Each structure stands twice: as structure tokens, then as C-alpha cells.
Amino acid sequence: MDWYPAQFFDTASPPSTPFAILVLNQPINQNAYNVLKKRACFTICADGGANRFYSLMHAQGKESIELPNAILGDLDSISPQVRKHYEDLRVPVLYDPDQETTDFTKCLHYLHSHAPEIISSSSDPASNTSSPQTQQQQQLNILILGGLGGRVDQAVSQIHHLYMPFPSPTSPSQPSPPPPFLYLISEESMTFILHQGLNRIHTPGGSSLANPPTTQPQQPLSENIGILPVAGPATITTHGLEWDVAEWKTEFGGRLSTSNHIRAEVVEVWADGRVLVTLELGAGLKWR
């Protein structure tokens, strides 16, 4: 499995896979958002995330210009003023009263189930030559704007959602789009879940991330990386880090690979289970 986390911050060329932005009711990393919005094909706010999005846009005088594509949740957190503002501007405000799922989960399932139409509606008709069947099979990745520096239970919940499976198609005649890759963008990091087996994480800059040259464009990543066995004990082998390990058992209460350093353009991680990887964002993308 190849991972290209830096591609979403490349302003020179579009990412190889379309992506949507999901805004949680957490502080927004404004520097990251300002770059991501240029390439995102859809933005959805999870209930109170609309308040955060509105505040960010209001501070820039863009609250009536830069709009989310949809707001979804049980709507117990969005303020009446923000809700009216967006409804008046014809932003879809979707009510889902289900109390067995979080607003986060509702938004993930919405993006997944509507991926073909989101991708189709965001494509340039002149350059889009893919068939409806191809669009149905195309993956829509999801970049989640959240924060891990506040309440611990909310931080853990965000990580929990990265591990959650997506529903299977209800009918063979109506195949579901491929499950999206989820990336959590917090104040200083980008976090996602590696699959079992060999993972190749493409990290442009490699060893130069330790001392990025000031004369070149800002790198999207810094050198720090952590690999965490959140789902349970795991055995990992790495290549391309300052402190590589081989057949190394890692678990909470035992050994953890934190504060390691990227030293190659491609970092390889083999794992016997799903593990979490967190990459430090470049200085220009951090938000404090």
C-alpha cells in the first residue's frame, strides 16, 4: 500500500485522488485549511463544526462567500444564528436524529455514499472523460479538520473514528464506492491508519526535513513521525527512519515508536496489524 500524504498540500498539481474536507466542532487549523480548500471537491460540517467554519470565514469577511457544501448532524450544536445564515444562503442543512451514531460518523457515511456524485459534480466537464461506472469505482478520500489538544475523550474519539469500517453495499447491483482513506489534520500533525502488511509512505524531502532549506518552497511535512499500536499490540519493521526497527513488538505499557525522524523519501512500515502513524506538519502548515 502506497501513501502520499503530502499530495494534498501540493498547490502546483491536483492530487491523484479527489478529496473532501470534513469540519468537526474543534479548532480549525487555518493554515492547513487555506491550502486544502484550493483542491477539495466538497466541504461538509459536522453539526457544531458549522460554528467553527462560520467564525473562521467571518474573521476574513467571507462568511457569505465561502460556504460549506452541506451541514449534517442532529443539529443540537449549531447555533440558531449560524443555521439561519447558511439556510438563507441555501446551504443544505441535513437533520439526522439518530443517537446511535455521532455527527462525525454521519458525515463519513454521507461522503462515502455520495462519493460518485460529489466527484462527478466537481469535475471539469471538458476534461472529464470517465464513464459513470468508472466514477462509481473512484475513491473519495476524506481530510478531517479536528484538534487533539483539547478534551482527551474527544481526541480519543477522533482517533477511534479513523478505525471504523464503512458499511458494505446493500445490493450487489448497486456497488458501493471504495472505502475512503481518512486523514486527520490537527494543529500540528497529520494522522492516519496504516494497513496490515507493507506500507510505503512517500515523504518528499527525506533527510532534508531535519533542516529544510529556506530558499525552497515550504515543505508540507517535518521530520517527526510516530507509529502507535492503538488497536492492540503489533509487530513492526521499518526502513527510512533515523531509528529503524526489525520485527519489533510495540504496545501501550511496553515499547512505543514516538519522536522518530524521517530520513528517506519513502518510509516503509511493515506491520502485522493496523497501526496509527502521525506525521508532523511543516512549519507553514501548523496552527497554534
Automatic annotation (TrEMBL):
Record keywords, A-Z: ATP-binding, Kinase, Nucleotide-binding, Transferase
GO molecular function: ATP binding; kinase activity; thiamine binding; thiamine diphosphokinase activity
Residue span(s) of domain Thiamin pyrophosphokinase thiamin-binding: 197-276
Pfam families linked to this entry: TPK_B1_binding (PF04265), TPK_catalytic (PF04263)
Catalyzed reaction equations: thiamine + ATP = thiamine diphosphate + AMP + H(+)
One BP annotation, GO: thiamine diphosphate biosynthetic process
Domain of life: Eukaryota
InterPro entries reported in the protein's UniProt record: Thi_PPkinase (IPR006282), Thiamin_pyrophosphokinase_euk (IPR016966), Thiamin_PyroPKinase_B1-bd (IPR007373), TPK_B1-bd_sf (IPR036371), TPK_catalytic (IPR007371), TPK_catalytic_sf (IPR036759)
Pathway as given in its UniProt record: Cofactor biosynthesis; thiamine diphosphate biosynthesis; thiamine diphosphate from thiamine: step 1/1
SMART domains, per database record: TPK_B1_binding (SM00983)
Its EC number(s): 2.7.6.2
Enzyme class: transferase
NCBIfam families registered for this protein in UniProt: thi_PPkinase (TIGR01378)
Family according to the record: Belongs to the thiamine pyrophosphokinase family.
Record protein name field: Thiamine pyrophosphokinase
Organism name: Helicocarpus griseus UAMH5409
